[in-house]
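I am still getting used to backbone structure tokens and would like to learn alongside you. To get us started, please write out a protein record for me. Once you have written the record down, we can walk along the chain together.
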Amino acid sequence: MSKINQDVNFPGQDMDRDPEALEQLIQKAQLPKGAHHSNPRHTAITGMPIWLYAILAAVVLIAALTEKLPGGMLGGFAVAMLLGGLLIWLGNLFPVVRDFGLPTVLCTFVPAVLIFFGLMPEAMTVVVTEFVTTHGFLDFFVAAVIAGSILGAPRALLIKAGPRFAIPLISCILLAFTLTGVLGALSGYGFWTAVLTVAAPVMAGGLGLGAVPMSEMYSAHTGQDSSVFMGDLMSAVVIANIFCILIAGVLNGMGKRKQLFVGFSGNGELMRVKGKRQELVTPPKRTVASFLTLGKGLALTAVLFVLGELLGAYFEVLHPYAWMIIAAASLKIFGLLPKDLEEATTDWGEMVTAVMVPALLVGVSISFIDINEVLGSLGDPMFMVLVVFTVIIAGLSAGFIGWLLKFNFVEAAITPGLVMADTGGSGDVSVLSAAERMHLMPFAALSTRIGGAFVLFLTTLLVPFLPL
């Protein structure tokens, strides 16, 4: 705090008692707002001096190499946050391309590449994988972002954008199925083969509603083992996820540089409206909150997550995330929570987003991305073309139809478009991070869950057309 006082001549009030003063102080000092925001002089990694970061990283690396790295959340945080911070720092060293998602791309794929070449200690891989999957770090992150984003959004935005959002969502799915099938037929790949082995898994909103259940359905229809289909289905999803991240970064960079047409980019705002625009704009993000405020936000987020799981257990028609979204949106729309509790949950979501995005991306890379599967599909050029074509159709159709419905093109192309073609919850994080639109997570999660359920239902109707 003494360094801040020197920089801006602040008299040293009690910061916990005057959060607004600290907020102004941070803005004056122009400090980084989160772990994934680079220090302007690139002299800090995860907010620490480089020399101190090097010492901390050495401690973790030695523990991993000697197989003394502790498991659980603390070991997972140590590896994921330090590695994520380093990759974000490296990505931010390169001007221009960093605006197109280079830091996110590095966090998402470099750890998987290190594992592929055997350069990551096995202890790190095991600890981080358990941290993300067994210990629920992915749920922890996504729940915080969903609850914080919904309760921090203006009521008018949820009321006006929600029902209208279903049209581009359903349209991009149907167009991706149809046009990918047509391209498959014209290329000799086969209409139904292209639809069911490329478009369906890509547009299912993740592996849980895509490759895994589809392989079982195809196995039952053909009599072959599900492993026969799993490789191609998984590859389609993983490769599509890569291009979703890249395209999201490109759209973000394009939107920053030029407004190609009216409503091209909303710079993070989903809807293009006239009149009382202030009612539909997300309030400015705060960068400081008291400990008590963050504690209340964590408590409500946890209970909303539990409620989603409870409803999902009894009403399996929707994923628990979808039920959590419905519960949070209901609380917001009907004004059932005190204002301070809404703000506390929003602050908690902002804190998690500001600090833990790099860690989550690294965890996803280590736990879910297999470079062997990605490379294995590169040997079939037409397969690659169909996958990329599906992603492009999803983004363009959602963007164009959303634009007709008064959404901004870039925002609609990203969600529901690109987030329907990524790997689900983890892919949503990567895509929205590359696009610098993490606050759209509620719409992304709603897209992947509701849209994914629709895709799986549609696929069950089309399975009889799969060539034997």
In short: The radius of gyration is 22 Å. The longest strand covers residues 44-45. The first helix runs from residue 2 to 8.
